[in-house]
Design goal:
- The chain is built from twelve helices and no strands.
- By secondary structure, it is mainly α.
- It has a domain of 108 residues: Tetratricopeptide repeat domain (Serine Threonine Protein Phosphatase 5, Tetratricopeptide repeat, Alpha Horseshoe).
- Helix 2 runs parallel beside helix 4.
């Protein structure tokens, strides 16, 4: 009896962990969806994705069950760090079934997937730009949806990532004494992302860049802006001592 119980337990573990799951064995897409959803809830996204994928091939694109299956398939891909494919599948949900209740969430999750592909702020921001456009689309297409406000919050956070990118690029040129190039990036931080924490830091580096170049008037004006708009910025008193102010 003990041996039979162990074998039965092993069989259930194998099904839940990919050790024998065969989507083709189920008689209907409804049955396959139910099994796949159970595996998804248990954290077995590898097998669940296979099941959901098969469901999407067995039903019309706009069938409600097919839409749900594609959405959960994309969630499984996201969980497995398959962000590019997840972005595409979430996008398909939003575009192929725009009136389905999952469409707004799917479009938001497409943006989330794109953002995951932008690993470091100073690197190529192509996917970050794509995420920004997608979040803006969420707000435009579904302005009354709950996810619209969530997209706005994500856009604000994304703005800080872009500020970080320009700031770090400016630091790169500053370290190599290419001050004119550094100034362009530091100015972009202040102009485009003035509400982020990087704005004050960029102004500090602008003052230092102007100082290296001997641009006294620009240095003085930047210090005035720092004290007026960003008075709590670190190193402000060191870089712009009040005794040096007119």
């Amino acid at each position: 009896m003990r041996r039979l119980m162990l074998l039965a337990g092993w069989g259930s573990v194998a099904l839940g962990c990919g050790g024998g799951f065969r989507p083709g064995r189920y008689a209907s897409p409804q049955e396959l969806f139910a099994v796949s959803q159970t595996m998804y809830r248990r954290g077995n996204c590898r097998d669940a994705e296979l099941g959901f994928r098969r469901v999407t091939t067995q039903l019309p694109v706009r069938d409600s069950l097919a839409v749900r299956a594609r959405f959960l398939m994309a969630e499984c891909q996201f969980a497995q760090s398959m962000f590019l494919e997840a972005a595409r599948q979430f996008r398909r949900v939003a575009d192929e079934a725009p009136n389905h209740h999952l469409a707004p969430r799917a479009l938001l999750r497409s943006g989330d997937s794109q953002l995951q592909l932008w690993k470091r702020a100073e690197l190529d921001p192509t996917y970050g730009e794509a995420a920004r456009v997608t979040y803006q689309e969420v707000m435009a297409r579904y302005p009354r949806s709950e996810v619209s406000s969530r997209a706005g919050v994500k856009l604000a956070g994304l703005g800080e990532r872009f500020a970080e990118k320009d700031y770090k690029n400016g630091l790169y040129y500053f370290r190599f004494r290419a001050y004119l190039s550094a100034i362009l990036y530091f100015k972009a931080v202040v102009t485009d992302h003035g509400a982020t924490p990087y704005a004050g830091l960029a102004l500090i580096k602008l003052v230092e860049s102007y100082d290296r170049l001997g641009f006294e008037e620009e240095e003085r004006e930047t210090c005035e802006n720092l004290r007026r708009f960003y008075p709590t910025t670190d190193r402000l008193d060191d870089v712009c001592p009040e005794s040096a102010m007119p």
